[in-house]
Amino acid sequence: MRRALGALAVTLALTAAVAPPAAADLTGWAVGFLPMPEGYPAQAYISGTDHKGNYSGDILTDEGSVLVTWTDSTATVHGRPPGFTSAEVTGQNRAGTIIGLSFDLDEPRTARAWTFDTRGFTLLTVPEGYAWTYATALNDRGDVFGGASRNGDTWEAFVWPADNPAAPKAVVLPREFAERLHGFVDIDHDGSLIYNTQDGAGRWKDGRFTPLPTYVTGDLSGTTAGAVDGGQFIGSARVTDVPPVRTGCLYWPAPDVRPQPLPGCKWAFAMNRDRLVLGDEEIAGGLPRRYAVWQDGRHTGLLPSPAGHPSIDPKLVSDTGAIVGVAREEGNNSALGRPVIWRRFSG
């Protein structure tokens, strides 16, 4: 539901019972390329899905980035908001609404957040006294979580409610809590904001802070949430506080249930509503990164690289069971790449 965009996202820091494995013998993942629109560069970035097999992202052209969607495997370019030089996608919900960020043609340091749906682009209302807006995540009912800034340096958290997006609401925190806050990371479908503090992770809703159950056993301690979807969470715990510090992945099936560790997982960063989790596999030395998938806490295999593209960057897990991201040729160190899709096969 989210995409980090470099320094902006950093400053924004807005800073159990487990189902049994499927009966099929899961044997691996197959990878293929998504089509690119004719006449455009073959490099893109994928940041959103409606969980029905359709995806969204952006393509960088000589004139700036443009919004692109993949619907029924057909790529369509939608351009950018009028008067802006870019359209960078940061998320999408199951209703198909896309959120993103654009920069002003006349004011290069001014960023504006927007939504995109069947009506086209709609700029998010700028809170009074602010100049910049940023959209971090949105939930399935259409609430947008993000931030606003007066100068692009200091950000404050806001929510644009689905039932009244013209009246963004500031996230006002008690001072004693704000001093411990590391940042908000996501918004759930009931409007809860997911946060991390120096004491652990939790939910903020209607002025109440509810910590997630922690995981402390053996050499695992401390918890950090990374994403939420309908009351289930993924995150991590520290394996040790003694350098080199390592991490292990956690999955919460519900906000009041103790998390379970995912064996062999270092970082978990995406999931779907069916408990399919995408993350980094823990390997000695940490490089090169290897991406793997866990279903109901069970390792289901590594994601392969397509021929000629050794570097992969998977981003999203759809409710269809597919995973999408980009793959890069040797020497390509940018965030962009060839859009790819991984599908699970069994035997």
What does this structure look like?
- The chain has 347 residues and is mostly beta strands.
- It has a single domain, classed as YVTN repeat-like/Quinoprotein amine dehydrogenase (Methylamine Dehydrogenase, Chain H, 7 Propeller).
- The protein contains 2 helices and 28 strands.
- The strands form 7 sheets. Strands 1-28-27-26 form a 4-stranded antiparallel sheet, with no helix packed on it. Strands 2-3-4-5 form a 4-stranded antiparallel sheet, with no helix packed on it. A 4-stranded antiparallel sheet has the order 6-7-8-9, with no helix packed on it.
- The chain starts with 5 loop residues before the first helix and ends with a strand.
Topology:
Blueprint: H1 6-12, E1 26-33, E2 44-49, E3 55-61, E4 64-71, E5 74-79, E6 88-92, E7 98-103, E8 111-117, E9 120-123, E10 132-138, E11 144-149, E12 155-160, E13 169-170, H2 175-178, E14 181-187, E15 193-197, E16 200-205, E17 208-211, E18 221-229, E19 232-238, E20 247-252, E21 260-262, E22 265-271, E23 276-281, E24 291-295, E25 298-302, E26 311-317, E27 323-328, E28 338-346
Antiparallel strand pairs: 1-28, 2-3, 3-4, 4-5, 6-7, 7-8, 8-9, 10-11, 11-12, 12-13, 14-15, 15-16, 16-17, 18-19, 19-20, 20-21, 22-23, 23-24, 24-25, 26-27, 27-28
Name the overall outline.
Answer: globular
CATH homologous superfamily - what is it? YVTN repeat-like/Quinoprotein amine dehydrogenase
> What is the share of helical residues?
under 10%
> What CATH architecture would you give?
7 Propeller
Number of strands: 28
Order of helices and strands: HEEEEEEEEEEEEEHEEEEEEEEEEEEEEE
Strand content: over 45%
Tally of alpha and pi helices = 2
Strand order of the main beta sheet, please? 1-28-27-26
CATH class: Mainly Beta
**Alpha-carbon Rg, integer:** 20 Å
Q: Largest sheet at a glance?
A: 4 strands, antiparallel
Distance between the termini: 31 Å
Mean pLDDT: 87
Structural class of the helix and strand makeup?
Answer: mainly beta
**Contiguous uncertain segments of 5+ residues:** 2-26
Q: Kindly give the count of domains.
A: 1
**CATH level 3 topology:** Methylamine Dehydrogenase, Chain H
